[in-house]
Design a protein that fits this description.
Number of strands: 0
Radius of gyration: 23 Å
Mean pLDDT: 84
Largest sheet: none
Distance between the termini: 9 Å
């Protein structure tokens, strides 16, 4: 029989998932800062234009937070699939070693 060449890929996937989770945390932190700045703006900018701007701003913020939440849920699903793949890889390696 020929030589076995098994490449485990789930480690790279797990690293990518961790990077995505870190980026999502940074996005959520940035959105928090934006909302704090918007609160400060209310104190110095008082007009109908501010009220209109504030409604649009809040609409965008709600959408962004919703999208970030969706990304978190999707990342969790990918993470769960990666865990399953890692277990499958371990099983395949064990079976390959038995065949050797």
């Amino acid at each position: 029989m020929g030589d076995w060449n098994i490449q485990l890929k789930t480690t790279g996937l797990n690293s990518w998932i961790m990077e995505v989770e870190e980026k999502l945390t940074k996005v959520k932190d940035f959105l928090d800062v934006l909302e704090q700045e918007e609160q400060s703006l209310k104190k110095v900018f008082d007009s109908q234009a501010r009220v209109t701007w504030e409604k649009v701003f809040q609409s965008h913020m709600d959408r962004l937070r919703g999208r970030a939440g969706e990304m978190e849920r999707l990342t969790l699903m990918v993470e769960e699939a990666a865990w399953s793949l890692a277990e499958l890889e371990k099983s395949m390696v064990a079976q390959a070693e038995e065949v050797r």
